[in-house]
Write a structure and sequence with these properties.
- This protein has about 350 residues and is an alpha+beta fold.
- A hairpin with a 2-residue loop joins strand 3 and strand 4.
- Helix 2 packs across helix 5, helix 6 packs antiparallel against helix 7 and helix 7 packs antiparallel against helix 9.
- It is elongated, with a radius of gyration of 30 Å.
Length: about 350
């Protein structure tokens, strides 16, 4: 139903008109009754003006920060700070001078394209999700007429890129030049393929020296200890001799400690930043190895194992991947042609004269 200066949508009366040459459509919040329709018919222009003036008092920045704050109950303190930081750095500068009604699909796509010049699609998607939450709350509070994300092209993840890894020579150069507790840490990193957060969260109770296995069952992320891994599944991984020797030596003088890798306060590191700053990067600079991130120790180990022909299922378990498909998706590009594997394949297919193989082509 539509009248002069108003219309009805979802059993609510909206006002429609121009103010200073600009078209507005706003909800009055009034339910459809004869009395309300009569009131809006007589006063639609004044009602529209009042609603627009009130909505303009609500700035994008203030409203967005309130939305983020309202959702903080579901986040850790550290993660809440991270969300606020992402908003202030990557979203607010582009949208803070706009009214909610001005934020259209094309505006959002322009913003995404600007970010894609500097950041990966996966990163831009994270920022987009924050903006999407803000805009949907704006719609629910009648600050805009419709969801501006309807019609916005989805930011697609790019195909997996070849990850930066340390070469075999670089790995052993790093290990041989490390010392103290950091040597144990770096050996465990390079010879288990564990995620950095899983390494930081290791306890001595996770180490079974008799069976030579490590139980990976927790993770440290955003300074919060989580009693689960990234995939929410614990796993048991084999200790290679290199790891066994390093951890045994470390245990010999840290028997009373709960955590394996601790800071000067005998607490687990809340994040890897200090390890990078004071131990890893200085070591790499000293021995002339290019820095490729601490997490690259994981990529380096997994790719080395696959390239040397280790069983895919074993590598999958070590990596903590949900399936071997995930392992191959990210690491198959590192697997080089191997003469022994090729010879083995030839032997399987070769007719040695003893057994005749009949191949039926259909």
């Amino acid at each position: 139903m539509r009248g002069d200066g108003y219309y009805i949508r979802n059993s609510v009366i909206y006002v429609d008109g121009e103010l200073e040459g600009k078209r507005y459509r706003k909800s009055t919040g009034l339910p459809v009754t004869k009395k309300n329709i009569s009131y809006v018919q007589k006063n639609h222009h004044v009602i529209l003006q009042n609603i627009v003036e009130e909505s303009q008092k609500t700035t994008f920045t203030e409203f967005a920060l309130q939305v983020i704050e309202n959702g903080s109950y579901n986040r850790t303190i550290a993660y809440q700070k991270e969300v606020v930081s992402k908003f202030e750095r990557y979203i607010n500068p582009y949208f803070k001078h706009r009214e909610f009604s001005e934020i259209k699909p094309m505006i959002i796509e322009n913003w995404q394209n600007m970010l894609l010049k500097k950041y990966s699609a996966a990163t831009v998607k994270k920022y987009t999700n924050i903006l999407k939450q803000i805009m949907r709350k704006a719609l629910a509070n009648d600050l805009c007429m419709k969801d501006p994300f309807i019609g916005v092209d989805i930011v697609k993840k790019a195909p997996p890129k070849k990850r930066a890894i340390y070469t075999e020579d670089e790995m052993f150069n790093i290990i041989s030049n490390a010392s103290g507790w950091f040597k144990t840490f770096i050996v465990t990193a390079f010879a288990t393929g564990m995620r950095t957060g899983e390494l930081l969260a290791l306890k001595w109770s996770d180490i079974d020296f008799e069976k030579r296995v490590i139980t990976v069952q927790r993770n440290i992320n955003h300074a919060v200890i989580k009693e689960s891994t990234k995939t929410n599944k614990s796993r048991t991984i084999d200790m290679l001799d290199l790891v066994y020797d390093a951890l045994s030596n470390e245990f010999s003088h840290k028997k009373n400690d709960e955590w394996i890798f601790t800071n000067k306060y005998d607490e687990p590191f809340s994040e890897s930043k200090n390890i990078l700053k004071y131990y890893f990067k200085p070591l790499l600079e000293k021995i002339g190895v290019e820095y490729k991130s601490l997490y690259s120790s994981r990529h380096s180990f997994i790719s080395l194992m696959l390239n040397r022909g280790m069983d895919l299922m074993w590598v999958q378990n070590i990596a903590g991947h949900a399936s071997s498909t995930t392992t191959l998706k990210y690491y198959a590009m590192y697997m080089k042609s191997d003469a022994k594997r090729l010879q083995k394949a030839n032997n399987i297919m070769q007719n040695n004269g003893t057994h005749q193989t009949q191949m039926v082509i259909s």
